[in-house]
Amino acid sequence: MAGHAGPGEFERALLAWLGLHARFDHSVVFAYRGSARPPMLYETFSPAESHVFVALYQDGAYLLDPFHRAAIGGCEGFRRMRELAPDRFYTSEYFRSYYSQTGLAEEVGFFVQLPEQTSVVWSLMRLAASGPFGTAEVRGLRDLAPIVLALCAQHWRDLPEFGEAGSRVTTLPLPGSDLDRARLWASQSLTAREGEIVNLVLQGHSSDSISRLLHISTGTVKVHRRNIRHKLGIHSQAGLFARFLSLLNETG
Question: Where does this protein have coiled-coil stretches (predicted)?
């Protein structure tokens, strides 16, 4: 099936089938491997929409995306964004500065694990005007997940190396190696623990959530956050997010 389909033919056929079971406004497929810049495999956006959903995302926003974190963590099957997002995701600076630009009411995805620590995530999206997916639609998509995962695993079983010359996967240049975010924050005089906490704060975790994840007290988390603000000379989530993007640009 994958060997005989023309460019985009498989994706259009699968989307048409999924459309019989749920309404959605947009769809995009990304491949992930660690923190490497993810190639886009398929999209349904206009050029203006693609700037937000693809270009800005690939420029670094993906590193804070719950879907990216779940994919590289081995997640497989059907998931809703609300099931994966940290407790403060919808009030995080990442959400305000980037994700809100998408105008989405909800995003759901099929997570497919491939060899070589690579995963593919096929996202279905509903805009604010359409509202979230209905309960019956979500149930129907979950039921279809085993079939979708099997088809996608077959279709992308020979996914080329990231950045491979002539690859049908890559539309934008990829970095030569994964971004080392620990080293990124070390360049700002943060300790390894402070770097962990910065990354979790940027993803949308509260101090209580970070406390549970790192098995330290909430008070200790708050001390670390205070030290981080002092070292970086910033006093807001917006300032932290801006510093993150600046460091990514310098690294890239």
Answer: none
Q: Does one domain contain both 139 and 192?
A: no
- Is it the case that residue 3 has pLDDT exceeding 50? no
SS (H, E, C) the chain: CCCCCCCCHHHHHHHHHHHCCCCCCEEEEEEECCCCCCCEEEECCCHHHHHHHHHHHHCCHHHHCHHHHHHHCCCCEEEEHHHHCCCCHHHCHHHHHCHHHHCEEEEEEEEEEECCCEEEEEEEEEECCCCCCCHHHHHHHHHHHHHHHHHHHHHCCCCCCCCCCCCCCCCCCCCCCCCCHHHHHHCCCCCHHHHHHHHHHHHCCCHHHHHHHHCCCHHHHHHHHHHHHHHHCCCCHHHHHHHHHHHHHHHC
Per-residue confidence band for 197, with pLDDT thresholds at 50, 70 and 90: very high
* 77-80 β-sheet, strand order: 40-43, 26-32, 118-127, 104-114, 77-80
pTM for this structure?
A: 0.83
What's at 157, amino acid-wise? R
CA–CA gap between residue 100 and residue 115 (Å, rounded)? 33
Instruction: Quote the number of domains for the chain.
Output: 2
**One-letter amino acid for residue 177 of the chain:** S
Residue 40 lies in a domain: yes
Within a domain: 168: no
